[in-house]
C-alpha cells in the first residue's frame, strides 16, 4: 500500500518503512542501509523526509520524558509528540515557551524544520533546544550541548546529520494563558501599525483570505495576569463573543478554549486541541518567513495577488517569530513575520500559483518553511542562508557516506 504524508499530498518513494523499537535496532537499520531518513509524525508537505532507500519511523522508539528540575530542562525521545510532552510537563508543574498550532507533531521532526508558533519575543521551537543525541551515519551516538562546536548548525538539521534519538529542551515553571479573538482588523491598521499590533500580546496571529475588506480575525494569546492595553477593541476590531475556528466552515470544537478563559499553557498555546484530529488532512501548506523590516511590503505584495491566491486558499495566518542563531533557522539573524497559506488540497493548482507568490516574496529575503510546499524554481533559497556551506560541511562530518542525503538536500546543499 502506498505510504503517504499526513496531508495525503505526498507519496513516499522509499522502498520500505521500518519501525524500530530500540536505539540498537535503529543503529542496525541505519548502518545496513545505503540511503536512509528519519520519519517523524509525517506532517511535512514535501519530499524533505523521503529517501529512495529506507525510512525509519521514530514513532516506536523509546518515548522517554525525563525532567531535570535543577537545570530546568526536559530530555525526550525524538519521536515524542508535543501534545504528550506538554501533558507530562504540565502535570509536573513545568512548561515550554511556545507550541506550534498543532500539538500532534514530533519534537525532533519539528525542530529539524524550525517549526514555530507566534510571538514577537518567542523564538521558534528549535530555540528551546539545549542538547541533542544524534545517531550519525557511522552508527555512533553523538551528544551535542549548546555551546559545543557545530551545535547551532545541528539543531535545525533537516534530518541531514542522522536520527535524533533524544532532545533536551529548556523548560520554565508552568503558567496560565488565555485566548481572545477579534473580528475584522482594518487593513490600514495592519499595514500602518504592524509592530504595535503584533506586540500587543504574548502571541498574535492574524487570519485572512486576502480578498476581504478587513483581516477577518486577530487571535491573541495572553499570559494570565499580564497587563493588557487591549480591552474589547483591537485596533478597530471588536472582541468576539462566540468561539470560532480560523476557517469559518470548520468545527470550532477542534480549537483550544477561547473567550478569555484562562487555562494551562498546554491547553492554550496550540490553536488545536490534542484530543481531536485537527482537520481531515485535506490541505496543503506553504509558509514564507519575511525579515521584519520587509514585512509590510510582503503583505502588500501578497494582497495584490489576492485574485490569484484566494480561490485556492482556505486561510492565511500572519504571525511573528524572534531572531535566533541557528544556521538553518528561517529566523536566523533576523526577526521575521511568517505568511502562512493553508491551501485546498489541489497540488497542481497550488504549484501553478506558487511561482508568482515566490516571485513577490523571495526577493524580499523571505525564507520558505522547510517542511511546507515551496518550489524555488530559480534556486534562490540557498543564498538566503549565510551558513549553508558550514552546514553542508557539518552534515558531511556526521554522515561521511551520505546515507542521509536525499533529492531535497541535493537541491539545497552545495
Ligand atoms: C496541520 C499542520 C499544522 C502545522 N502547524 C505548524 C505550525 O504551527 N508552525 C510550523 O512552523 N509548522 C507547522 N506545521 C509543519 C510541521 O511542523 C513540520 O512539517 C514538521 O517538520 C513536522 O514534524 P514531523 O515529525 O511530522 O516531521 P516529518 O514530516 O515526519 O519529517 C520532517 C523532517 O524532519 C526530519 N526528522 C523527523 N524526525 C527526525 C529525527 N528523529 N531525527 C532527525 N530528523 C528527523 C525528517 O527526516 C524530515 O527531514 C504544521 C503541519 C501540519 C500538517
Descriptive report:
The chain is about 20% helix and about 25% strand. The protein has 11 helices and 20 strands. It has helices spanning about 25-30, 80-90, 105-110, 150-155, 185-190, 195-200, 295-305, 305-310, 345-360, 390-400, 405-410; strands spanning about 15-20, 35-40, 55, 65-70, 75, 95, 130-135, 140-145, 165-170, 170-175, 175-185, 205-210, 215-225, 235, 235-240, 265, 285-290, 315-320, 335-345, 365-370. Strands 16-11-13-12-18-19-17-20 form an 8-stranded antiparallel sheet. The longest helix is centred in the last third of the chain and has 15 residues, at about 345-360. The mean pLDDT is about 95. It binds flavin-adenine dinucleotide. Flavin-adenine dinucleotide (FAD) binds next to strand 2, helix 3 and strand 9.
Unreliably modeled segments: none
Gross morphology is globular
Strand content: 25-35%
Q: Work out the helicity level.
A: 10-25%
Radius of gyration: 20 Å
Mean pLDDT: 96
Structural class: alpha+beta
Q: Let me know the largest β-sheet.
A: 8 strands, antiparallel
CA-CA gap between termini: 35 Å
Number of helices: 11
Which kinds of small molecule does this entry bind, naming each only once? flavin-adenine dinucleotide
Q: Spatial order of the strands in the main sheet?
A: 16-11-13-12-18-19-17-20
Number of strands: 20
Key structural traits:
11 helices; binds flavin-adenine dinucleotide; globular; eight-stranded antiparallel β-sheet; five-stranded antiparallel β-sheet; alpha+beta; 25% strand; 20 strands; 414 residues
Amino acid at each position: 500500500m502506498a505510504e503517504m504524508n499526513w496531508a495525503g499530498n505526498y507519496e513516499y518513494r522509499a522502498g520500505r518503512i521500518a519501525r524500530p523499537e530500540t536505539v540498537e535496532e535503529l543503529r542496525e537499520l541505519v548502518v545496513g542501509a545505503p540511503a536512509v531518513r528519519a520519519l517523524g509524525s509525517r506532517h511535512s508537505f514535501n519530499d524533505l523526509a523521503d529517501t529512495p532507500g529506507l525510512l525509519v519511523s521514530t514513532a516506536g522508539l523509546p518515548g522517554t520524558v525525563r525532567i531535570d528540575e535543577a537545570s530546568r530542562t526536559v530530555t525526550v525521545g525524538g519521536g515524542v509528540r508535543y501534545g504528550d510532552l506538554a501533558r507530562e510537563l504540565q502535570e509536573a508543574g513545568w512548561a515550554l515557551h511556545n507550541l506550534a498550532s498543532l500539538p500532534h507533531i514530533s519534537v525532533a521532526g519539528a525542530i529539524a524544520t524550525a517549526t514555530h508558533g507566534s510571538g514577537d519575543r518567542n523564538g521558534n521551537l528549535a530555540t528551546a533546544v539545549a542538547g541533542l543525541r544524534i545517531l550519525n551515519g557511522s552508527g555512533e551516538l553523538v551528544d551535542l550541548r549548546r555551546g559545543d562546536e557545530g551545535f547551532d548548525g545541528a539543531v535545525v538539521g533537516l534530518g541531514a546529520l542522522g536520527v535524533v534519538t533524544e532532545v533536551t529542551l529548556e523548560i520554565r515553571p508552568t503558567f496560565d494563558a488565555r485566548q481572545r479573538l477579534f473580528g475584522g482588523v482594518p487593513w490600514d491598521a495592519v499595514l500602518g501599525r504592524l509592530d504595535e499590533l503584533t506586540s500587543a500580546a504574548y502571541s498574535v496571529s492574524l487570519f485572512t483570505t486576502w480578498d476581504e475588506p478587513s483581516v477577518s480575525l486577530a487571535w491573541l494569546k495572553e499570559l494570565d495576569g499580564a497587563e493588557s492595553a487591549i480591552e474589547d477593541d483591537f485596533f478597530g476590531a471588536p472582541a468576539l463573543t462566540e468561539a470560532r475556528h480560523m476557517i469559518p466552515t470548520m468545527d470550532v470544537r477542534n480549537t483550544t478554549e477561547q473567550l478569555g478563559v484562562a487555562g494551562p499553557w498546554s491547553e492554550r498555546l496550540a490553536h488545536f486541541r490534542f484530543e481531536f484530529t485537527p482537520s481531515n488532512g485535506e490541505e496543503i501548506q506553504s509558509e514564507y518567513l519575511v525579515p521584519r523590516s520587509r514585512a509590510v511590503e510582503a503583505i502588500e505584495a501578497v494582497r495584490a495577488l489576492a485574485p490569484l491566491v484566494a480561490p485556492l486558499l482556505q486561510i492565511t495566518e500572519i504571525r511573528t517569530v524572534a531572531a535566533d542563531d541557528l544556521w538553518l533557522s528561517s529566523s536566523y539573524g533576523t526577526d521575521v513575520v511568517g505568511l502562512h497559506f493553508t491551501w485546498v488540497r489541489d497540488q497542481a493548482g497550488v504549484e501553478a500559483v506558487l511561482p508568482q507568490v515566490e516571485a513577490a516574496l523571495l526577493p524580499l529575503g523571505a525564507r520558505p518553511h522547510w517542511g511546507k510546499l515551496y518550489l524555488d524554481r530559480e534556486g534562490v533559497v540557498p543564498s538566503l542562508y549565510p551558513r549553508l556551506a558550514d552546514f553542508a560541511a557539518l552534515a558531511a562530518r556526521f554522515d561521511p557516506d551520505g546515507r542521509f542525503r536525499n533529492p531535497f538536500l541535493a537541491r539545497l546543499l552545495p
